[in-house]
Amino acid sequence: DPLPSALLTIFHGTPYIQKLHSYGSRDIEAPALVLIQPIAYVLIGNGLYEEAIHHFSTMLQLISIIFQDIKNAELALFELNRVINLAPDHPEVFEQRAEILSSLGRISEALTDITKAIQLKHSAQLYRHRGILYFISEDYATANEDFQNSLELNKNQPTVMLYKGLSFFHRGLLKEAIEIFKEAVKQKSDFIDAYKSLGQAYRELGNFEAAAENFQKALMLNQNHVQTIQLKGNMFYHHGSLDEALKNFKRCLQIEPYNEVCQYMKGLSHVAMGQFYEGIKAQTKVMLNDPLPGQTASAEYLKVKYFREYSRYLHAHLDIPVVEYNIDADLPGKFKDHWVKNLPFLIEDYEEQPGLQPNIKDVQLHKFENYKSSVQEMICVANHLGSLMQYETVGFLPNKRMHRAMGLAVLEVMQAVQRTWVNSKVRMNGKTKLMQWRDMFDIAVKWRRIADPDQPVLWLDQIPAQSLRRGFNNHINLIRGQFINMRYTEYFDNILHFIKDRILVYHSANDHKELLEVREALEQVHKVEDLLPIMKQLNSKTRDGFTIHTKVPSLKNPGKEYDGFTVTLTGNRIGNLLFSVETQTAEARTQLYHTEIDALYKDLTMKGKTHLLSAEPRETDVICNLILSVLYYFCNLMPLSRGSSMVAYSIIMGALMASGQEVSGKIPKGKVCSSYMYCFCILHLCPKCSLRIFYIAKVASLVLY
């Protein structure tokens, strides 16, 4: 029977109902609340306490929703706490409180509530909710488990399928992510985010064609989907297709004029094409987008000031032959130091580069067919040589612009080395002089800079001495937390074997019984992740991690060793692991390596001159060994801020061609040049090892001439 209107009137004057009527937008819930509270009191009067509690709980949930809608989260939490005190066995209340807590950034509390809700009731929705919270917390493995549990309870959830794929993607498990994204688009054929994510996964995998196809599918569903346009443009830029990249960034800015990433990339694309006026104009727009107080500056904002100054420098030198200027000598030391470290642009007494001069015109782009046949032939040869540097492994997108640039570097290195062996002197930086090893490397460095002006490719020993004394770290994360760097998984077993060997050497001073225990424990370790617990058992000093240092034997001073690389393994549990390889380029270490390279290069020049006058095959082997020795010490030193491996490989190819040999094969599938160097440093350079091991392996597996 309907309740008497008088009873409704009595409870209509409560503070909650008054509050409710001050928010007239909730038309549906208002009448419900007017009825629920008096009904609950009537039920109490009749001794029906359980039913009354249920009505009060419902009423308070509705009130909390209203407070949440008006962004009064604390009041919403207060009301939900009251509900839980009255009825602690309702999972939906815990879920609602978790939603509010997560919106306040209190993720761990939200997880506790959702876990309690799941204990009360297993449902696809609750597992999905908890999975998303774990995903936000970057605990992707646990999130994946919850998404899987949700899908087992309800298979037809394309959004959950997308999240599951993303939980693989963010752990570096790209192939697994791709399969899940494919399942998501099967469930929902118009799922734009799934196509976009599929495209990005293929792009990270290095599959340009598949990535472009899926980005296009997303745009066919929504031609104005900004994130897809941005990702597609970024992919085209790193594929070396600057025209296509520029089209996408312009389209992105038409839809979203204040998109900082697209604005920055538009400026970068223009500058890379030699269009400095448009490029610097776009950079300036990014500079003017200052972060608000308390807001973290974007990566683009941090980079753009340096890039604009570098762009101005390049424009001012457009009409000067590239051999007659040098950014390592011309740019201020503090500028280079801050640029390499990607620090905020706070440089005292910095004098800006000159603005654009109207008498210096932008670079004019020519069609391939307009070049002379000899130039066309050279470009084709460069394209081929550069393509031989492409890594046939996961994670490396082919970049035809980079291939062409480094192919041209190979040809110029070959010509310069040949001239040196014939005439001794070459023209470098505006002067005619004897070519030193640094001059040879500068050729490749110049082309690497041209290929991508976004990256500061600088000689670290040209940084201010004060900064160099503190050292620069060239660092590669192999495993960080739950993320596995798929580019280098080919080397994990080799590095693990090396670590085991060094641990045995470390414990070799122990008595035979202890050494046997160590050996038996290490035999049970088959993955890097399993090593830390074992080390903690073997050595209390290990605590949460350890480092292993490699030593590089000197050829110039037999018996002497230099600091090589450092392998670091830290963490206290699975999922909180850091496995990395790094080298620190400090001043004293740099000088030692320079001495070694100086001696080897001098010997190489002498042998090169002799080789031109001799047809002895033995001389060719000697020259090959010397070239590889120079590059071996260069790669252990890691003297550049970026691009050391690409520069090194182009030097190998160019110098070998100068000696009459030709690199005709690609880098073996699954191998990475930089990581290859790392692993040879690690695996073949104990004090008793011979460098010949390195030579044979390099010639057979890497150079393939």
UniProtKB/TrEMBL annotation:
InterPro entries: TPR-like_helical_dom_sf, TPR_rpt. TPR repeats lie at residues 124-157, 192-225, 226-259. Keywords: TPR repeat. The keyword NADP does not apply. It comes from the Eukaryota. PANTHER family: TETRATRICOPEPTIDE REPEAT PROTEIN 13. This is Tetratricopeptide repeat domain 13. The gene is TTC13.
